[in-house]
Design a protein that fits this description.
The structure holds two protein chains of two kinds. Chain A is mostly helical. In chain A, about 70% of the residues lie in helices and about 5% in strands. Chain A is globular, with a radius of gyration of 24 Å. The chains are: A mainly alpha, B mainly alpha.
Chain lengths: ~475, ~45
């Protein structure tokens, strides 16, 4: 099998090198010094995945990640939890105030940059190695816990009625809907609306209201575990981390082993595929394929009588939903393929059992698509914190700091993107292989079932690299 | 009708991103076929 793999790899490389690299000349100027054409990276990534698959089949012969092993390393002082909650509440109040009282020019006000860079993108970047840090700073959790504590102090144990039982069939669907809506705001709404500081502040208040009502009805933890979109979203990435904050203690565990314990409640698969699909659409909507399709879609809606702006919004909404549907369908095809291997596992069961394998892929897509955003636009926070409202203040003396676009080149960004996608998909393969070994009685059937996951992983990798390369042209 | 071909240089590389998926599917399909044949001959 290994000999065949070497022959296959040599064949792929030989065929690739035989094709001229004309189209790469259309890439960004900074990426012209790539030693090979961009598409060849997809071929190389596929070879890495196939080699990983073969190595797993040969060397990883029993499940190693299914049982969570973690050891406590630190007892977290109670005051730290309270302090983090206070910081979270203060930050939320300040952001809402800045959005309502500050300059309404997006580049001058801290709110749009804060929401779309440190909050939406940087927290996952931190969570995948430091654990669920957002939970500690979650302002809505802090307010709800304070309300519960204060009510208990004033009225005793009977001060608050018992929370309702969270509907099991609702699962993580509210989180999925919330993430899809946020992505819609970010990717579909026109720039004047999606980065309008007061609009974002009002949306933040509305979001807080929904969370507080939800927690008061169903209890703080059941709601946060299932229905707080950002809490669930950041928590997904935190499951990959080697650090686990739980019950006032910090635990250390093997990387990836936390996500294996992901409870596959209803809506989990939809949430993870939405995470991948929305990120994909962000890149896809900047590529040539979409910019050639979108005008026709818009014209079709204009012909139906919609205004030009509404037509653009509808076209982008369709594009966003279609991309999520494509990602979901691709995963579904892999799962149906796995079900054909036998041993009585149906597609619905396998879909749930392998949902966690998509989490590192979602992270890989996120890092690949937003590394440059964090690297460049993240620097804007240095001058925005000094003049958060855009009124010309300079509290920290950093209002004059400019963004340094030279610290990493376009070529460097491309290498980070490729590395993120390859590592993320290899992690997905490892998780899928380990789950298959625990699920199938016959190790050969387990390996055969993973042929399908290999195709899914290679497909997602190629799709990710294609979207990224197209977006940069 | 000729427009897509006039711009072939702009989109043909997109197909190359699909190639690894096709190659892997063909290779795995071949492996499955061989494994099934081996099982059938052995039984």
């Amino acid at each position: 099998m290994r000999r065949r793999l070497i022959v296959l790899g040599a064949g792929l490389a030989g065929a690739a090198l035989a094709v001229p690299a004309t189209a790469s000349a259309h890439g960004l100027v900074g990426k012209q010094d790539l030693p090979i054409p961009e598409w060849l990276f997809a071929w190389g990534a596929a070879v890495v995945l196939v080699a990983s698959f073969v190595a797993l089949a040969a060397l990883w012969t029993s499940p190693r990640l299914q049982e969570l092993r973690e050891r406590p390393v630190w007892r977290v002082p109670r005051i730290l939890d309270v302090l983090c909650g206070l910081i979270g509440v203060a930050a939320f109040v300040f952001i809402v105030y800045a959005g309502l009282a500050g300059s309404q020019t997006a580049l001058e006000n801290i709110v749009p940059t804060f929401v779309y860079v440190p909050f939406w993108v940087a927290i996952p970047f931190i969570s995948f190695w430091a654990g669920d840090v957002f939970r500690a700073f979650n302002p809505w959790r802090a307010v709800a816990r304070f309300a519960a504590w204060a009510a208990g102090r004033m009225g005793g144990a009977s001060a608050l009625p018992a929370p309702l039982e969270y509907p099991r069939r609702l699962g993580r669907w509210p989180a999925m809907v919330g993430i899809l809506f946020f992505a819609w705001v970010e990717l579909v709404l026109p720039p004047g609306q999606r980065d309008d500081p007061s609009t974002l502040a009002i949306m933040g208040l509305a979001y807080a209201a929904v969370q507080l009502v939800g927690m008061s009805l169903y209890g703080i933890d059941p709601w946060l575990r299932n229905a707080d979109p950002f809490g669930v979203y950041f928590g997904m990435f935190a499951r990959l981390a080697p650090l686990h904050w739980k019950d006032g203690r910090l635990f250390v565990r093997r990387p990836l082993s936390g996500v294996v314990q992901l409870e596959t409640r209803p809506g989990t698969v939809a949430l993870v595929t939405t995470m991948i699909g929305t990120t994909s659409f962000d890149g896809f909507s900047q590529g040539k394929v979409w910019t050639s399709i979108a005008p026709h879609l818009q014209q079709w809606f204009i012909d139906l009588g919609f205004t030009a702006q509404t037509s653009v919004d509808i076209a982008f909404t369709i594009g966003l939903l279609a991309m999520v549907a494509i990602i979901s369908a691709f995963y579904r095809v892999g799962v149906i393929g796995m079900a054909s291997v036998g041993e009585g596992h149906d597609a619905a069961e396998l879909s749930r059992r392998f949902a966690h394998t998509l989490v590192p892929i979602a992270l890989a897509y996120l890092v690949a698509h937003y590394f440059s955003l964090v690297g460049y636009q993240g620097q804007a926070m240095f001058y925005l914190v000094s003049d958060p409202l855009g009124h010309g203040t300079d509290y920290l003396g950093t209002a004059g700091v400019a963004i340094d676009y030279g610290w990493v080149s376009a070529t460097g960004i491309w290498y980070v993107q490729v590395a993120a996608l390859v590592i993320g998909h290899v992690c997905g393969l490892v998780l899928a292989h380990d789950r298959a070994l625990s699920l199938y009685r016959d190790p050969r059937a387990a390996t055969r079932s993973q042929y399908w996951m290999l195709v899914v992983m290679v497909g997602f990798t190629s799709l990710g690299l294609w979207i990224l390369s197209a977006a940069s042209q | 009708m000729s427009v897509p071909f006039a711009h072939i240089g702009h989109w043909w590389t997109s197909i190359l991103y699909l190639a690894p998926v096709v190659v892997v599917i063909v290779w795995l399909g071949f492996q499955s076929w061989r494994a099934k044949r081996h099982d059938r001959d052995g039984s």
